[in-house]
Each structure stands twice: as C-alpha cells, then as structure tokens.
Write a structure and sequence with these properties.
Layout lengths: L1 H12 L10 H4 L9 H7 L5 H7 L9 H8 L2
C-alpha cells in the first residue's frame, strides 16, 4: 500500500500544476494552519478521500505542515 501511495503522490506532485513551487501556505487557502481534503483537491484534483486519509498520518482529518512536507518533498 505504501508503494502505491508513494507512486500516486509522486505522479500528482510531478504534474504540470506543480511545475511551480507549491508551498503549504499556498495550498492552505483559508490560512487555518492545516490543509483540508478540499484545499488539496483544488491543486491535486485526483487525490481521493482514501489517499488523503493515508496521508493524514495522525488521523486529524487535516494535513499538518509536517504531513504536507512528507508528501511534497519539501
């Protein structure tokens, strides 16, 4: 599962939308300090709820800066 998840995320973050630097702050549209599924889908439309839950390692329902860094390589 982890290899599949890594492949999905690598593909998503290699997409043309990510040709420019995408930062946590630019994805966190409401500036809440976390990223919701809807906010992530705004920049990575193919991210499913299942994939989001796998990325959300603490199970909070939101991505922390650390969780985002783990998937974005930054």
């Amino acid at each position: 599962m982890k290899k599949l998840l890594a492949a999905v995320l690598a593909s998503a973050f290699a997409a043309p939308a990510f040709a420019q630097a995408i930062t946590f702050e630019s994805v966190d549209a409401d500036q809440s300090g976390t990223i919701s599924l809807a906010e992530l889908q705004a920049v990575v439309p193919n991210i499913t709820e299942e994939t989001f839950r796998a990325i959300d390692t603490d199970g909070s329902g939101e991505l922390s800066p650390e969780e985002f860094a783990a998937i974005s390589g930054g």
